[in-house]
Amino acid sequence: MAGDSLSESIICEKARAINADLLKDKPSTSDSGETFRASKGWFHNFKARTGIHSVVRHGEAASADKSAAENYIHHFETITQRNGFCSHQAVNRDETGLFWKKMPRRTLITQEEKKMLGHKPMKDRLTLLLYASGSGDLKIKPLLVYHSETPRVFRKHTVMKNRLGVMWRSKAKAWVTRVLFLEWIREVFCPTVKKYLEDKGLPLKDLLIMDNAPAHPRDLEEELAEEFPWLIVEFPPPNTTHLLQPMDQQVIANFRKLYTKELFQKCFQMVSDTDLTLTEFWKKHYNILSCVGLIGKSWANVSLRTLRSAWEKVWPKIIEERDFEGFVEDPEPATDHVVDDIVTIAQSIGLQVGSGDVDELVEEHSEELSTEVLQQLLAEQQKMAAEELSEEEGEDQQSVQQMSSSEIKDILKNWTELQTFVEKTYPDREKANCCINLLNDNVMSYCRTVLKKRQKQITLDQFLFPKRLRPCEPEAGPSGLQPLPRRERTPEGQSPDVLKEGDSPSKQ
């Protein structure tokens, strides 16, 4: 996510470490001598399965390139002067993970959950893409990527996703992909920026600064040249994100604190205004729809001062521009008042939370996930997806469930032929495998599951009365003899003849 390139050896080493984590608690089965080696063949198949062209390492601060950062500042100044950009015409973006249902570790809710049998941490994760201008007065609707397309609460309340305060999109791993990013650029970013500049009476041109994450195509400017020729895209050097990128200069951290404050404020309001206990509200009434509302409030509450000061490292002369335009900055607060507000609200509802607990929670959103946490997240997401799929099957009368088994088999056969054709003919094999895996995981797997479930099921009639062969289609038994023809059904209203003692078979 930081845009720092990884080598094959580092990826393979990480794969071996994950494999060791998965096996450490299992009984030893090494008698066969087979071990996971993360060979070149495995690496090739891994890239083919995921469609990855380049992979990035999290946490580039340790390897930040200060020399490259200093050189880029001069380059950036040259670009802004040559094109005549002002602070209104420069925009930066950054993405952040958010565990939207996670409390500090010492809260009552967290401690109570740990005591429950079969405890699983409440760590539901989503990804946000946040954008703001150098002037601080333009905040673009965020892109939110979640692992579910239509959560249960959305169907319950008939939510219209296009009216949410975010652009809602879904992905199994809740990651921002190239496809989702380009969709957001075309549908939200460019139209919003164009209207903003027109309203300000400024020339239609804009400078977009992005990091080198895989979802951000290096040829974005060329790809959008026909639709949006006024957009100029800049990529700072690798390993300089934490030194230069504006949104990384406390903007994201401040947003997380504000979200935590809104979350605690919501808890306080529900406990004060209803008969619900804090635990009851948290478990049964706080959902992803509530979270979207809090995200909108938190992003709106990020101050102008925070957004403007974030640009000072990459664009030092922006301060002179503000002085000329009459910007008035608020004085820097002596302490972090947002954290103090969170602690005060938490204590008012009986939670023993200190400023250290809040800081720890904010940092945990960006920590590298352990193998154990990844397994828990995957298990929880699969459970939720299975529940949603079960509900959708009952609600959607035109679904695959209404198709016959033979029709589903034909679809799967045609898909196999198409998959083989694409794999053999499409020149970009990685992109082809990525698309094939996407359809396999999200569409065709459902068809296979329905078919497999039907093959395992047997009705009560089938069990008690096995299907008999029609008289016109006799089959030989194990001995080679033809079975006797089936007796005709007794006409309704007549009593069947019964073979009595002493009667011959011909009287039957």
What does the model show?
The chain is an alpha/beta fold and 508 residues long. The protein folds into three domains: 4-56, no CATH class; 64-364, Ribonuclease H-like superfamily/Ribonuclease H (Nucleotidyltransferase, domain 5); 409-423 and 431-450, no CATH class. 49% of the residues lie in helices and 8% in strands. The chain is built from 19 helices and eight strands. The chain has helices spanning 8-23, 40-50, 66-83, 108-115, 152-156, 178-200, 220-223, 241-244, 251-273, 278-284, 288-300, 304-309, 318-325, 337-348, 355-364, 371-395, 405-425, 429-456, 460-464; strands at 4-5, 56-57, 90-99, 125-133, 139-146, 167-170, 206-209, 231-234. A six-stranded mixed sheet has the order 6-5-4-3-7-8, with helices on one face. The protein has a two-stranded antiparallel ribbon with strand order 1-2. Strand 5 (139-146), helix 5 and strand 6 (167-170) form a beta-alpha-beta unit. Helix 9 crosses helix 15 (355-364). The longest helix has 28 residues, at 429-456. It is globular, with a radius of gyration of 31 Å. The relative contact order is 0.11. Mean pLDDT is 76; it is low at 57-62, 331-335, 469-473, 475-481 and 492-508.
Compose a concise summary of this entry.
With 508 residues, the chain is of the alpha/beta class.
Strands, helices and their partners?
Layout: E1 4-5, H1 8-23, H2 40-50, E2 56-57, H3 66-83, E3 90-99, H4 108-115, E4 125-133, E5 139-146, H5 152-156, E6 167-170, H6 178-200, E7 206-209, H7 220-223, E8 231-234, H8 241-244, H9 251-273, H10 278-284, H11 288-300, H12 304-309, H13 318-325, H14 337-348, H15 355-364, H16 371-395, H17 405-425, H18 429-456, H19 460-464
Parallel strand pairs: 3-7, 5-6, 7-8
Antiparallel strand pairs: 1-2, 3-4, 4-5
Helix pairs in contact: 2-18, 9-11, 9-14, 9-15, 17-18
